[in-house]
Amino acid sequence: MGLLLVPSCANMTSVDSVPASSLGSSARVLRGTVVSARSVQVQASSEDKNLGTGLGAALGAGAGSLLGRGKGQLVSTVGFGVLGAVAGRAAGSQLGKISGQELIIRVDGSRKEHRVTQPVYKQYGVIPVGTHGTLELGSGTSKFLPDSY
Q1: Per DSSP, what are the bridge partners of residue 113?
Q2: How much is the pLDDT for 96?
Q3: What is the pTM of this model?
Q4: How far apart are CA 104 and CA 33, in angstroms?
Q5: For the chain, which residues score pLDDT lower than 70?
Q6: Which contacts qualify for 107-111: CB closer than 8 Å, 24 or more apart?
Q7: Which letter, b or e, does each residue of 105-139 get, where b requires 16 or more Cβ atoms within 10 Å of its Cβ?
Q8: What residues does 42 pair with on adjacent strands?
Q9: CB–CB of 127/119 below 8 Å?
């Protein structure tokens, strides 16, 4: 019979998951106020477009292969595959778009301003001018997190 070791629950801590890309990253944290805000539409990524194209082509070719016989079946498979790819790319472009905001943040106690473009986060909604919060300036990514939420 084996020995079963169970760690004490008092010594366990909660562990949050982070993406591997965040290893070694750092951010400068500043306090500031939104002095300008405008809504923007963030375009779909190339991955969204490519996924739509591939899925559309596969579904179109699959549907086309059910039609006709011989050369007619080949023609319908290729034709429906091309049409599916075009429709899938358009759908991937539309589905990948997200609502965002371009914010200009004035750093507290300074005349320095930073421009941040970020998605409209569910928990914060649209951030209005005059909102005070934390500006996280990272290498490649920055975001503004309001205080009052």
Answers
A1: 106
A2: 61
A3: 0.51
A4: 8
A5: 1-26, 43-46, 48-49, 92-97, 149
A6: 107/30, 107/31, 107/32, 107/135, 108/30, 108/31, 108/32, 108/33
A7: bbeeeeeeebebebeebeebeebeeebebebebee
A8: 98
A9: no
